[in-house]
Structures are given as C-alpha cells and as structure tokens.
C-alpha cells in the first residue's frame, strides 16, 4: 500500500530553468539572438569555403577536397550538436566559450594550413608523416563547434520567450540559412578578391568573436556569474588580440611563406581574379619561372623543348589561321610566329591579367619574343569552352591546346569529348589539333584517356612525346616540386579528321631542341605504352584523376 503522506520521490530536473533576465524587451532580445544566428551562420560558411578553396589551391583536385572538407564538417556538426546537450543548462556561458574558440580556430585556420604547406616542403611528402591530415583536423574542429551552436541558440531563444518547438526551429533555421547565403556570396565576391584568403579568414574570425561575445556579455550577462563574465571577457579579448596581431603580420607572413614555397627570388606576385600568378627569376642570368596557383607552369630551364614539341608538329600543313587555347604566357604564340605564312593568331585565355603580364613584364615578354606586339596576334579573355561554342565552323587551320594539366579538376571540361567536338567543328578541312596530355611515363592512363576522348570525338590521332633526351628538360608545365623531380617526359596528341602525319613543316625554321628523328623515335615509344579499352572523358563523367 502506498502511504499518501510519504514524501514524493525526487523527479527529473526541470526542463526549462525559467525566462532569462534581459536588459531589453523580449521582442528586442529575440531579434538580437536571431541576428547573432545570422552572423554566426555567415561566418561558419566562410570557414568552410575558405578550407575548400585553400585545400584546392594547395593540394589540387577541387572535387576531392570539397568532398572531404564538407563531408567531415557535416559529420562533425552532428557530433557537436549531440555534445552541446550537456551545456543546455549553462547555454549562455557555453555559447560564449564556443564562439570564442570557433573565432580563434576558424580565423587562424588559413594561416596554419598555408604555413604547413610552405615550410614542410609541399603536400606531396606529407601523407607519410600525417601532417596532411591537418586539413581534416580543422574541418572536424570547426564542424564540431558550428554544430554545438544550434542547440545552445535554440535554448537561448526559448529562454527569452517560450514557444512551440516547430516555430522556434523555423525562426532559427530561417536566420541560419539566410546568413549562410550571405556568407557564401561574400566569400567569392568580397572577401577573396578584396582581402585574400588569409586576411579574409582573420576578419571573419573577428566578426564571429564580436558577435558571440556581444550577445552573451550584453544580452545574457545576468545569466552569468561575475567570475564567468570576467573569464569570457578576457577570453574574447585574447582571441581578438591574437587575430589583430595576425592581421598586422599577415603581409610579412605571406611574403615569408611565399619565399619558402617559391624561393627568395620572387619578383611578381599578384592575384588576377582568376588565379595567383608568381614570377621568379628572369634577371641577372637567373632563369624565369612562372607559377599559376602554386604550380610551375613555365620554367625558363626547359620551356623551349615543351613549346617546340607542342607547336611545330601541328604546323606541318596549312597554317594561315591559328587558334591558341590557353597559352596566355605567349610562349606557344612565339613558336607559331616563327613559321612563315601565318596570317592571324587568335589567343583565347581566361586570365586577362596573365596576358597583360606577358605583354609588360620585361623578363616574360623577352622570353616570349614580344609575341603580343605582333599585329597578327589577337587576344580574347574568355573561357575556352564557352568561346568555342560560338566560334565559326571551319575557321582555323591549326588549333593549339596549351591548357592546364587534365588532372586539375577545373580543367577536365577542356579535355572532354564535348570540348573536342567543338574543336573539331572549328577546324578547316585538313586542319590539325594538338593537345598536351601530361607525362606519359608517370600517368599513362591519363594520357591514353586524352587519346581515347579525341578519337571518340571523331578525330584520328597520333600520340607522341618528348623524353629526357631533350636538352635541359625536367618535366613540362603544371608541376609541383615533387612532380618536377619525378617527371621524365611530356606527352602530346596530334589529331585531325584524317590520319595526321607526324613531322616537321618543310621550309620552316628548324626547332632548336627537336629533330625529325627524335620525334619519330619518341612517337614509337609512346605507342608501345598504349593502355587499351579506356573510355572517353565527358562533361558528366570525367575520367581524369590528379
């Protein structure tokens, strides 16, 4: 029998500690919380995009890097949401601590990743040591902190005015998603072009710290003990001090990191809006090197055999009208201009800043023979794929594809069956198309996928390569430091609607590094490495890997 006078057993703790004691009216307080949700969501998305962009720039293969960063971050957000349940009873203090930590970790993440890249010899050697997982660690940490925000903000909203869960979730997510939209648009159109990745991340961390600290210390200060208020204030001031000091030193840090990556002979470093362009050497007898987004695109030590092998075999035949896709450095154009009978050269390169540098930089313009000063050369700053879609049919005798490596994700559409179909349409009867297809020895599947894709577009192909016998050759364009050491050749594919003949144009100036005998011998060696049965690469099913 139950004794009605017995004391009731202890029940569960109350699920709602009561309304918050606010210095403003509840409606104003609710608006301020939702405004903080908006700001925090914008900052969180900027952190995600900054990690994706920096990883793609430093490591390459943007699809893989975006997948790794976003999947790890979303997973961590779920774990963070679960972990934050333990902080609901101290939601204000917990949220303040999380925002200060997130501002510090997210704001400094870009500098930390770039420092590791610069001072450890590049990402290629970091897999063995495990340091490359720093990217995953930052994704995980930032995701945990972002995920912990949501339950705590929900608790703070409910502390202001109790309402049904569905309405609170709708309000919270509306502010969150709109903030994410603003952050997603601000990163590529405001932060990246105006501030750069490093300063942009630091500014984002500052905004994050100010928003979180102001909300807790201003609106919910009565929920904190005197000790908690001082600790949170000191923590936020320390975070802001670290971010401010980093912002002051960021230019010196970037110069030091750039010298660690490129050497101490950096002459030009600029962000064109399309890519980062760095020039080293070119003075006092030092060879010029051109880096695009961290990859060695042109080396004065070995660019001549590469560009001669790219251009001269394709010029064997009618060549009055020539189209160069890519090649904004002007070096392929220089080789085209050596052939008599060229009436017009159209250059289509997406980066007008690179073309402008090739015109005006003394060392680079000297290397390209002042090609852009020739009145026969006409430049269009446009994406090659989009430009080809509007090109008049049968308008070019020679089409030279001097494009970034097919293993770079952003370039895969320029090595697709659809792209080569457009190129075929632009060729006049008897016209030739030449493509550089990467190092044959180290990446044969990529090379033969290019060949298979050209054949799928209705073109007949002749593969060839230049080997280490070419004087001074060290690997061709689009190289990391490790790839430069490993490369022993560079592969090309000559294509036409009828079987092309691999030779040098009679009556043209003799190439300085290329002979008919070497070309024929290396073409035979290339053919013997064929990988049969490879499917073509298309826009919806790219087959290249970095």
Written account of the structure:
By secondary structure, the chain is an alpha/beta fold. It folds into two domains: 26-261, Up-down Bundle (Growth Hormone, Chain: A); 301-527, Vaccinia Virus protein VP39 (Rossmann fold). 52% of the residues lie in helices and 13% in strands. The protein has 16 helices and eleven strands. It has helices at residues 26-59, 62-83, 91-119, 126-129, 134-160, 165-219, 226-262, 303-311, 331-337, 352-360, 362-367, 384-389, 417-426, 444-456, 481-486, 516-527; strands spanning 266-271, 276-280, 289-292, 295-299, 321-326, 344-348, 377-380, 396-402, 427-438, 460-467, 489-496. The strands form two sheets. A seven-stranded mixed sheet has the order 7-6-5-8-9-11-10. Helix 1 packs antiparallel against helix 5 and helix 6 (165-219) crosses helix 7 (226-262). The chain starts with 25 loop residues before the first helix and ends in a 19-residue tail after the last helix.
